[in-house]
Amino acid sequence: MELSFEQAMARLDELTKEMEKPDITLDKSMNCYKEAVELVGLCRKYLDDAKLSVTKLEEE
């Protein structure tokens, strides 16, 4: 199941907080980073799709 934009942003916030913990292991940090990169890509897709929709509406 794909996350909504809002869910992806909330998860990014969780990952950021997790990575800011002083006792995080390198392995955990790398896993968080990998997930964050994937979520950023998903959010970009949502934003690009929204921009395309707005552009199409403006052309009508």
Task: Write up what this structure looks like.
The longest helix has 34 residues, at 26-59. The protein is mainly α. It has one domain (5-16, 26-59). The protein contains two helices and no strands. Helices cover 82% and strands 0% of the residues. The mean pLDDT is 96. α1 (5-19) packs antiparallel against α2 (26-59).
Structure described in brief:
With 60 residues, the protein is an all-alpha fold.
Given the structure, what is the number of helices?
2
Please indicate the count of domains.
Answer: 1
Low-confidence stretches: none
- Binned, the helix content reads over 70%
Count the E strands.
Answer: 0
The SSE string, one letter per element, is HH
Q: What's the shape? A: elongated
What structural keywords apply?
0% strand; mainly alpha; 82% helix; elongated; 60 residues; 2 helices
Write the SSE topology.
Blueprint: H1 5-19, H2 26-59
Helix pairs in contact: 1-2
